[in-house]
Each structure stands twice: as C-alpha cells, then as structure tokens.
Amino acid sequence: MSEPQDAPSPDEGLIVAPIRVGHEKSWLQRLSMGLSRSSQALSEQVASVLVKRTLDQAALDDLETMLIEADLGAAAAARVTSAFAAARFGKEADETEIKESLAEAIAHELLRREGVFDPYPTPAKPYVVLFVGVNGAGKTTTLGKIAADLKKRGAKVLIAAGDTFRAAAIEQLTVWAERAGVPIITKPPGSDAAALAYEAVMKAREDGVNVLLIDTAGRLQNKSGLMDELAKVVRVLKKIDVAYPHETLLILDATVGRNALSQVEIFTQVAGVTGVVMTKLDGTARGGVLIPVAEASKAPIKLIGVGEGIDDLQPFNARAFARSLVGLDAA
Ligand SMILES: Nc1nc2c(ncn2[C@@H]2O[C@H](COP(=O)(O)OP(=O)(O)O)[C@@H](O)[C@H]2O)c(=O)[nH]1
Ligand SMILES: [Mg+2]
Questions:
Q1: Strands 313-315 and 211-214
Q2: What is the DSSP secondary-structure string of 78-144?
Q3: DSSP secondary-structure letter at 191?
Q4: How far apart are CA 50 and CA 47, in angstroms?
Q5: 0.90 exceeded by the pTM?
Q6: What's the pLDDT score for residue 102?
Q7: Of the ligands numbered here, which is closest to the C-alpha atom of 12?
Q8: What is the 3-state secondary structure (H, E, C) of 61-84?
Q9: Which of 63, 259, 284, 300 is deepest in the core (most CB within 10 A)?
Q10: Which among 36, 213, 304, 308 is the best mutation to test ligand 1's pocket, defined by most ligand atoms within 8 Å of the CB?
Q11: Each residue of 205-247: pLDDT tens digit?
Q12: Cβ 138 under 6 angstroms from ligand 1
C-alpha cells in the first residue's frame, strides 16, 4: 500500500459523503424519495395536461411533448404515448388512473432491459468486476457501496484503486475501503493501471477473495488516453483469464441527461459493458432519461443510485422504477 502524495484540492469538496445510519426506510421508500424530483415534475404535468379531459389526439400530443421534456427521447415518448392511448383513448380518467397507465407503458419499455448484478455467491474466485465511466459519474461511490454490501453479506472482497490518475482518487477509495472494512490495493499516483489490475488479480487468487472490485480513471478531456488505458486494463485481465472481467459496469450520471447516450456508445466499444448503473437519479427532475439509455445500451440496467448513502444503491426493478417515476406507490 502506498500513501497518497498530495491532498485533494479544496474545490473537490468532501471526499466521501457523510454516511446515513439505520434502516428506518424500506428500499421502496428510498426509491420513491430518490425519484421525488422527477415524480413531482411529472405529476404536475399530468395534473395540468391530462386530468379531467377527454383523452383525444390533442391530449395525447401534449402527453408526448411532456414525455420528451422528461428526457425520454422521441422514439420512447411515441411508444409510451401509443401504449397509453391503447388503454385510455377517448375516455376521461382521474390522476391515479392516468398514472397507472403511464407507469404500465413505461414499465413495458424497461422490463426487458432489467438485469441482475449478482457477484456473490458465485463459483468464480475471484469474481472480477470492472467499474468504468466518465469522471464524476459515481464509479468510486458505487464501488464503495457495493463493497460494503458484499462484506455485510459475508463475501471476501478486495478493492483495486485503478484510478491511478490522481492522489485524491486513491484517497477517496481508501476511505470507502476502510468504511466497508475491506482491503485495498493501491499504487502511487501515475502508476500503470493495468499493472495494478494484474497485481490485484494475483493477490485476490492468493487470498481466496470472492469478489475483486477494480476502479478506473475516467477523464473526458483526455479521451483517447483514457480509452487506451481502459482497453489495456481489459486486455491484461483477459490475458490472465478470458472470463475476466466477469462484469464491466458502466456508471452513468442521470443529471447529465441525454449526454449519457454517447457515453454508452463509447464505453461499450472500448470496454465491452455488461451492465449499466445509473446514479444520481435523486439529483434530477428528468429521471426519464433512464428509458432512452436502456434502449441504447446493449447491456441491461442492473443498479440505480438514488442518493449518496451506502443504502442508496438499489437493484434495478423496472416496475418499481416506473411506478415511482410517475409518483405512484411502487409496491
Ligand atoms: N446524490 C447522489 N450523489 C451521488 C450518487 N452517486 C454518486 N454521487 C456523488 O457524485 C460525486 C462523484 O462520485 P464519484 O464516485 O467520486 O465519481 P467517479 O469520478 O466516477 O469515481 C460524489 O460526490 C458522490 O457522492 C447518487 O446516487 N446520488
Ligand atoms: Mg473515482
């Protein structure tokens, strides 16, 4: 283990968000709380545009516009609108009935895009998980949340601080590792990430680790360099075992909206994404962006982040998501 060489710059703020303790809320409550900005925005629109109105073509056009404004994109907005029309056309409906149909249409979009992240227990030892995505997307935080959860479930976990680009990144991940109570392997800032990944696998094998979580750097301004480095990490892992990495999670920040779509394309090309994690759904009123992302990605959506706390990372459940998004009880 190496000590970080310099302190994080002040503009980076807190390295790790304060932790919330206790399990006073169910995951469904967390989900609906996390999506409340989106569901409030949609609820207001539904109330002003659709309620107590005959659902004719003009109303459907308004619905479609509203869904495009919620970042669903033209194609998905059109499909959701026609599915909604099939249930409600020519009738009047109250707010709950409208939301039920809307949720049903959105869930239908997402059901076949629902995936499961299940690294433990598995026969593979270690089960290798690579975290990719642009800077600030939430890779390190997501990795930390997963590490803590796996540890709690009894897995033997090892973290590799593969974002060797800056000292602060290594330090941030070290805090998460301590918090989760799992060992971390680091190298000094500027070290070769692929070499670190190699060493991490060797150590994981030696120690009988169940799950190896490998963080990576992600810098848009240095796109080709980043992509070369990432491709090299993947190449080195595959050389050890073609099954590695068993899982490559692409972390996307919901607050960047439709910019996430180009990230899906780039990272799928370079790293072969097997699952998508959408973070910061609590930080946007346009959580609907998950729908075009799911449509654009070959890999399914596996996890969503609805807050900074350790319990705010959830398995992706299409129906619960769709219901929460429109402001219905998710259950
Ligand atoms: N509100 C909210 N913030 C998040 C979520 N996931 C990550 N963050 C925050 O996003 C910021 C960037 O996360 P980080 O893990 O450092 O991103 P990285 O550069 O991809 O490793 C941090 O301040 C995190 O606390 C989430 O689901 N909700
Ligand atoms: Mg990071």
A1: unpaired
A2: HHHHHHHHHHHTT----HHHHHHHHHHHHHHHHHTTB-----SS-S-SSEEEEEE-STTSSHHHHHH
A3: -
A4: 6
A5: yes
A6: 97
A7: 1
A8: HHHHHHHHHCCCCHHHHHHHHHHH
A9: 63
A10: 308
A11: 999 999 999 999 987 655 678 788 999 999 999 999 999 999 9
A12: yes
Q: Please give the pLDDT value at position 7.
A: 38
Residues listed for the chain? 331
Closest to 323 measured CA to CA, from 8, 81, 18, 29: 29
Cβ(276)–Cβ(252) under 8 Å? yes
pLDDT tens-digit readout, 57-75: 999 999 999 999 999 999 9
Residue 12's pLDDT band, with cuts at 50, 70 and 90, is very low
* 294 CA from centroid of ligand 2 (Å): 23
Nearest ligand (C-alpha, residue 165): 2
Q: DSSP string spanning 291-327?
A: HHHHHH-SSPEEEEE-SSSTT-EEE--HHHHHHHHTT
Radius of gyration of the chain (CA): 21
Q: Go through 45-78 and write b for each residue having 16 or more CB atoms within 10 A of its CB, e for each that does not.
A: bbeeebeeeebeeebbebbbebbbebbbbeebbe
- Angstrom distance (rounded) from CA 130 to CA 232: 13
Give distance in angstroms: CA of 140 to centre of ligand 1: 7
The CB density around residue 149, as the number of other CB atoms within 10 Å, is: 17
Q: Is 137 in the pocket of ligand 1 (CB under 6 A)?
A: yes
Q: How far is the CA of 212 from the centre of ligand 2 (A)?
A: 16
